[in-house]
Amino acid sequence: MFKKCLLLFLLLTIPVYAGEVENAIAKGDNIFLYMFSPKCKYCVMFSPTYNKLSKIYDGQYSFFKVDSTTKYGRSLMYEFGGTYVPYVVLINSKKKQALHIPPPCLMDRVCIEAEMKTFRKG
């Protein structure tokens, strides 16, 4: 049981390293970029939804969870116009389009999935 919990903890806390999002953009991936702060209560509330979406849409989107308090996180927040957390951006690398998902939608998985499906069809 301990090993399963440890593995789950490690999978959910794998850091995103500088350049990973840019590499996915260069490859032409559809990207789900979630920027958070460890102290943000709304981020804590959204994280289980993020984890479910990352399993359901694996292969359709590349998922990145980036700590906005790091240097890399701050640079991504600036690049994508983020001024608060949680901040979620869908990126269609091939069409060079990005869509910010507004905060009220983040608390409703059905709303997020509708945005994801619509954006992917673009």
Key terms:
four-stranded mixed beta sheet; disordered N terminus; globular; 20% strand; 6 helices; alpha+beta; Glutaredoxin; 122 residues
How does this model look, in words?
This protein is α+β, with helices and mostly antiparallel strands and 122 residues long. The chain has one domain: 3-Layer(aba) Sandwich (Glutaredoxin), CATH 3.40.30.10. 50% of the residues lie in helices and 20% in strands. The chain has helices at residues 2-12, 20-27, 41-56, 71-79, 103-106, 109-121; strands at residues 30-36, 62-67, 87-92, 97-101. It has a four-stranded mixed beta sheet, sandwiched between helices. The protein is globular, with a radius of gyration of 14 Å. The model is unreliable at 2-13 (pLDDT under 50).
- Placed side by side, the strands forming the largest sheet appear as 2-1-3-4
Report the CATH topology name.
Answer: Glutaredoxin
Look at the structure and give the CATH class.
Answer: Alpha Beta
Number of helices: 6
Mean pLDDT: 87
Report the oligomer.
single chain
Number of domains: 1
The proportion of residues in beta strands is 15-25%
Q: CATH homologous superfamily? A: Glutaredoxin
Succession of helices and strands? HHEHEHEEHH
Give the low-confidence spans. Answer: 2-13
Q: Cα distance, first to last residue?
A: 43 Å
- Helix percent reads 40-55%
Shape, principal axes of CA atoms:
globular
Number of DSSP-assigned strands: 4
Give the C-alpha Rg.
14 Å
Sketch the major β-sheet. Answer: 4 strands, mixed
| Structural class determined from secondary elements | alpha+beta
CATH structural architecture: 3-Layer(aba) Sandwich
